[in-house]
Amino acid sequence: MAETEGAVVGHVAFSPVIVDSSEDTQGYILAPLGVKPDYQKRRIGSTLIESGKQRLSAMGVDILFVYGDPEYYSRLGFSVDAAECYIPPYRLEYPFGWQAMVLGERDWRISSAKIACVGSLCDPRLW
Ligand SMILES: CC(C)(COP(=O)(O)OP(=O)(O)OC[C@H]1O[C@@H](n2cnc3c(N)ncnc32)[C@H](O)[C@@H]1OP(=O)(O)O)[C@@H](O)C(=O)NCCC(=O)NCCS
Question: Which domains are delineated in the chain?
Answer without folding.
Answer: 2-120 (3.40.630.30)
